[in-house]
Amino acid sequence: MKIFFTRYMNLAQLFDSVFYVYKKSFAYQIMFVLLTQTIYAAVAFAASVAIVLYSGLTGGAVSLFTVFLPALPFLLVLVVAYAFGVSGNIALTYQVRAGGRVRASEALSLAARSIPRVSCVILLQFAAKTPAIALLVLNVTLSFQRPEAFFLSDEYILSALESLLTPYNLFWVLVALANFVIIDTSFIAAVPAAVFERKGPLAAVKKSCALVRKDYWKLFAAGFLWLATLWAVQRSLLTISDLVIVLVGLLNDSASLTFSASYFTVLYGSIGITAVVVTLVAPLGGIFPGMVYFNQRIKHEALETEISPEQLDYQGGPDHVF
Is 161 inside any structural domain? Predict the structure, then answer.
């Protein structure tokens, strides 16, 4: 049995393969996203309760520690949930590429077994971005030099925003964003390597760097274009939905409904549509690195182009196939 996408793909073919995988495994991809978002919602609620309770124990004082310390365990749970979701998206990518039947149970099993390794890879990627994040936080902090006056004056807020949007600050924002994309390019195949080859976090990052090294700037451009594509798709869907919601609000007004009725139609309609759009787009963020990983291995490692039906079962994980 032949595997799909056995030849090295150019950028257009790579993007096309991502949408092909998305279409072939759509229901299961959405399932992983919904599972992850359910965990997100539960953790966000629990974290908010913990922050309120902890603030009460500290006399109601609000500071970095009263917000961050009780939220830290929940942030780690979010990392684990994200690791599970993206591992599931990538596992489904393997199944579609293998040409076999998409099996949710095996994708769930592989995703669950990959959580520790993938979580560590995600934390390493975040750590690599820490200097750029600190730079952004510092610029924002310096722009809002008197935080205690934040809620006292509209003029203060406007002047602070103006100081934030100076050429100097915008330059460092662009530097930070470039840093993010550079790091994301280096790490792009790390999660698939952790999932499919069962590599430890550092070994997965090393494997990713080795796969992208010779095509670094090409993949840099591909990642940038892919992010722009996702943004354009998401923004287009949201724009269309916003127009529909506004029209519904206008119809409510023409039907002599109260202002609050039309306001809440727009508000909750917008929130609901945004959640749906994010759910639809999210799987693409996991499929793309998976296809980049396979594509780079085809080019640099002559990845196997044929596997047997027995190998498609990949009991114990797909790494023995490769």
Answer: yes
